[in-house]
Amino acid sequence: MTVESANxxxxxxxxxxxxxxxxxxxxxxxxxxxxxxxxxxxVVGELVRVLSRKFDLSRLDGVTVAEDYAQALAELxxxxxxxxxxxxxxxxxxxxxxxxxxxxxxxxxxxxxxNARYLWPLKDTSDPTALQLPLHIVAHxxxxxxxxxxxxAAIPGLLLRSRFTNLWERARSDxxxxxxxxxxxxxxxxxxxxxxxxSYEETLITxxxxxxxxxxxxxxxxxxxxxxxxxxxxxxxxxxxxLKYASYYLGNxxxxxxxxxxxxxxxxxxxxxxxxxYFHRLDNxxxxxxxxxxxxxxxxxxEVVADIADDMVAxxxxxxxxxxxxxxxxxxxxxxxMP
Length: 339
Hints:
By secondary structure, this protein is α/β, with parallel strands linked by helices. The protein contains ten helices and seven strands. Strands 1, 2, 3, 4 and 5 form a five-stranded mixed β-sheet that branches. The radius of gyration is 21 Å and the shape is globular.
């Protein structure tokens, strides 16, 4: 199978490949047979090689195609000690693949882990329609390799090697990379394989309707357990997830050169919503980062994304103050956040 045959609008044939001359593609888990495992791994490897004409995959460490996806993530050799166990996405976005950063001889690389069940259609090239979703999934993860590599080349030594002095710094870093990565990746892979616009829009609209209540419930629970670190992490993560879903949506629209005006359902939902201002601020912030793609000198453009998250959390009822080198968290009593 070629990308061209599955997606006629894309032609990479005249561009050199960027993936390493040799990279491992491992199939693991309860495949129907060894032959099936080998066949799927081979096809995925060939597709990744072709996509390396579109994306810079020079930092690719390898690929795992796993029937036991959750176990494969948990057991991935990341090249450094971490207390954080990789787990599949749950809830609004079902985990179909992940591209964690890893260290190999102190060099940052990326290892793609696919949930094999979503790639099975790649074994049969007779139905181009069935190929569209797995093709987009593979392209999306390949784009993650490029985006991570561009950041590491421009601002080396931060990814995986940053040391945070408090939970606020960690929360800001997490939201920056979650939002920027998904904006850039969805922009870069737009037009390859399936069109995820409807899915991204549905997820975003759904979360716009529930995120404030989820955050309020976390604050209500805090009134009983009194753990400031816990409530701050929970509330920040809730609003950060909404920004991440918006980043998927915005990046995909930008990659398809699609204006918001042609998405009337979302435009009507956004109008007058408390998230409207933040959505447009995020759009502007991500566009500014992309305008300097790969040429960043520092984190100043990225910090704007975290500032947006800070403002959302503050409006949601958790105020972070910095005084004399110390951090203070204020959670005012409001009717919406009382048990």
